[in-house]
Design brief:
By secondary structure, this protein is mainly α. The protein is built from 4 helices and no strands. It is rod-shaped, with a radius of gyration of 21 Å.
Length: 141
């Protein structure tokens, strides 16, 4: 396998990262919507605290996602330069940067999955504890 092929593979991998991050960004938007939909009905202080904490976590994840999208975008451009000029001297540094970026994305995905699970767990708990069903169910004549 040639060096050029390696850079092309990294380019494709980086495009997949970008696509995945865009998906996570959309999913974060959905999670915000889910929480906001039920937030106005919350009456218990303990539930308000939980929701505020999870919203803060979602905001942090959103910022991390945006930061990673920016880094991946720059990374893709750098790979393009390396494909065009393969004899550049900074390829080892770039390879280390690639590994670091890969680890950042892995850490983000772990945090995202944990947070997503918490959102659904908290939403379910709040729906049960706040008696939303009686509020949302249509009244019988």
């Amino acid at each position: 396998m040639t060096t050029r092929t390696n850079w092309e593979e990294l380019y494709v991998l980086s495009e997949h990262w970008k696509s995945d991050l865009l998906f996570y960004k959309d999913d974060l938007r959905f999670l915000h919507h889910l929480i906001d939909k039920y937030f106005i009905w919350i009456t218990k202080a303990e539930n308000l605290i939980m929701v505020k904490e999870i919203k803060a976590d979602l905001l942090n994840l959103g910022q991390s996602c945006n930061d990673l999208l920016e880094k991946v975008g720059k990374h893709i451009i750098q790979i393009g330069y390396l494909i065009e000029t393969p004899k550049r001297q900074d390829t080892r540094v770039f390879a280390l940067e690639h590994q670091h970026l890969e680890q950042e994305i892995t850490d983000f995905v772990k945090r995202f999955r944990k947070n997503r699970k918490e959102v659904f767990t908290i939403t379910e708990y709040i729906m049960d504890s706040e008696a939303f069903y009686s509020i949302m169910e249509p009244q019988q004549p």
